[in-house]
Amino acid sequence: MNKKLIVTAMGLVLAGGMSLANADVKVYGQLDVSVNATDSDVGSNNATRSGTPPVSNNDGTRLASDIGQNGAGYSDDINLTSNTSAIGVKGSEDLGGGMSAIFKVEWDADLVNGGAFKGRDQYIGLKTEGFGKLVFGTTSTAYKSAGSKIDAFYRTPLQMRAVGLQSNLHSGKGEIGQGRGTNMVRYDSPSFSGVSVTGTYQFNSNKQKSNQFNAAPQDDDPYSLGIQYKGGGLYAAASYISTQQSNKAEAAQYIVRYDMGDLSLHGIYEFDDGLITAQANNGRGQTGKDSAGNSTFNRAGSSRDDGADIWSVGLTYKIANNLIGFDYGQRNNSNGKNNTDNHRLQGIASNAARGGQVYDDIQDYNAWRIAGYHKFSKRTRVYAGYAVTDYNNKGEDDTFSLGMRHNF
């Protein structure tokens, strides 16, 4: 039913757009499917001893969920995945006086499982040459936008944010610091001698009254700011994001890329003041409980710890229609940054008698990636690569991916 409605809506948009003499409407998309082999010796259990609920370890060893970035671990397996395959409609209308109305409506399409369409960037707005662009709806934060500029394998299973070379602030969709913000206003300035600025502001829709069973959720409006420079083979950016929640709820990053003909060098450093920790550990103790009171590891907008800085450096080299790249990076841990090492306090916050306190510490790791692609044409390519995320004392996650992409 959802698919029929989407197709009908797209048809109406196209029909309406084509009828306007001064309108420009385009259907576009990206199809990407890969075969992925995962090999993990990071356990999927959240405790070392059984119980109901599971009893936390008290011997100083790490819980599997301490690893953060990839959740609570995954099983060895080989599977097909549809990697943010998408179809969309975008366009503009000349309003005169140098002003245009713009819009974009894009949906994620699951080519492997045939699942329902899910919304991606979807917004409407205005654009002028002198003022810039102002849009309303769902789109990327200023923090996320810069990250894709240094990732040659963006929107594949080998993308930097998926293997630990960038933080989870570059992924997801929502109102608590995810990469794609909902309920958002975004402004992009024109370029002045290569310099431009970006700002976003989100209206938190999670406003409710407290009652005898639940406290009112925080009604804080996230925002992000960014500045970029592009010129002479150099791209440099700095950005900041905050959810304005209590505890620690901020992050900042510096990004640079320098192109020298076929060789390109890049790097990123992300400073964690709580928000990387909150997103990387999927919000342990912050939000999300099942009927038994167990954490569902949903992401959070703040944490009690910080210091999980992430940095990575890399290079790519082009040879005709081919590109090969290598990256290496690290993430610091956030253990004890609030003067308490919380990882041994695993439990259930809603029932202290059954579990005690919750925690939001995450573990450090090293990560690296080697990958390459071959372009058959401007629109079609194949790619392959191998990535490793090696956690300090909890094992490693290995991923091999072989995929194909077509743009239209």
Helix-strand category: mainly beta
Shape: globular
Structurally, the number of domains stands at 1
Number of strands: 18
Poorly predicted segments: 1-9, 12-21, 44-73, 282-297, 344-359
Question: What's the story with the biggest beta sheet?
Answer: 16 strands, antiparallel, barrel
CATH class: Mainly Beta
Name the descriptors.
disordered N terminus, mainly beta, 4 helices, 44% strand, Porin, 408 residues, 16-stranded antiparallel barrel
Short description:
With 408 residues, this protein is mostly beta strands. The protein has helices at residues 2-18, 142-147, 275-280, 352-355; strands spanning 23-40, 77-82, 86-96, 99-108, 118-128, 132-140, 173-174, 180-188, 195-202, 223-231, 234-242, 250-260, 263-273, 310-319, 322-331, 365-375, 380-391, 395-407.
What does this structure look like?
This protein has four helices and 18 strands. By secondary structure, the chain is mainly beta. The protein has one domain: Beta Barrel (Porin). The longest helix is centred in the N-terminal third of the chain and has 17 residues, at 2-18. The two termini are 25 Å apart.
